[in-house]
Every structure is written in structure tokens, then in C-alpha cells.
């Protein structure tokens, strides 16, 4: 067939490569590494002190404070392996329709928007970031108890 004036195999229109849908998981941690925090959160889940990160495409992404005006607050670690907090549980948020490349484009955009100096313990924290990333990936919002 004739495509854009070229015949035969001169120009092929190939759809995006098929990929498996990526599962989106929220990893919830007890703040810090102390037994006291884990005990408190066990007793009063609705008023707990938690950290969260979003796992997608094999990496867990989260947001935290930095001590300068230019560094991103967005970092990653292997799933369930945040070095500063004690892993608690996993929430399955569903599957994103985004390709791995689109996922990285979203995250790279968020790295620019989420500077570590903009961190605020109540209004712009790891949970705000996790909620926003889940939203941009097209899956559900974080449950209220996490924040």
C-alpha cells in the first residue's frame, strides 16, 4: 500500500509496543525504626504515624525533605526497603494503563515539581506525593487513614 507517497516497506506505521499493565502498590511504613512507633500504630491505626511510597515498574517512589532550595525530594528505593522506616503493609491500588516510559515521564515531571524544600509535615508530605502519583497513574486515591 502507499503510505505518505512511499511504497512497499519504505515507511511502516507501527503501533506502540504492547506491554503488560503495571500494578501500582502503596507501601505503608511505621515512621522510624522504633518498637514504640510500631506499637502506637498497632493500637491506634486511625491516628498513626506513617510513611508511604508508591511502587510501580519495580521501584518504590516517595517524597521527603531536603536541606537546600534546588534538590528534588523525590527518591526511590527497592520495594518495602525504605532505609528510614519500618515496613508495615501493602495497599493494592490497581493497574495503570501507562507504559513504563510514560510512568518515568510522570515521575521525572514530579521530580521537578516536588522539591525537597517544599516539604511540609501536614500539607505537602510523603502521603500528598503518593496520592498525587497514584492519581496521575490513573488509579485510586490513598485511603484517609494513611495521612
Automatic annotation (TrEMBL):
<protein>
    <recommendedName>
        <fullName>PPPDE domain-containing protein</fullName>
    </recommendedName>
</protein>
<keyword id="KW-0378">Hydrolase</keyword>
<feature type="domain" description="PPPDE">
    <location>
        <begin position="22"/>
        <end position="147"/>
    </location>
</feature>
<keyword id="KW-0645">Protease</keyword>
<dbReference type="GO" id="GO:0101005">
    <property type="term" value="F:deubiquitinase activity"/>
</dbReference>
<dbReference type="GO" id="GO:0016579">
    <property type="term" value="P:protein deubiquitination"/>
</dbReference>
<dbReference type="InterPro" id="IPR008580">
    <property type="entry name" value="PPPDE_dom"/>
</dbReference>
<dbReference type="GO" id="GO:0006508">
    <property type="term" value="P:proteolysis"/>
</dbReference>
<comment type="similarity">
    <text>Belongs to the DeSI family.</text>
</comment>
<dbReference type="Pfam" id="PF05903">
    <property type="entry name" value="Peptidase_C97"/>
</dbReference>
<dbReference type="InterPro" id="IPR042266">
    <property type="entry name" value="PPPDE_sf"/>
</dbReference>
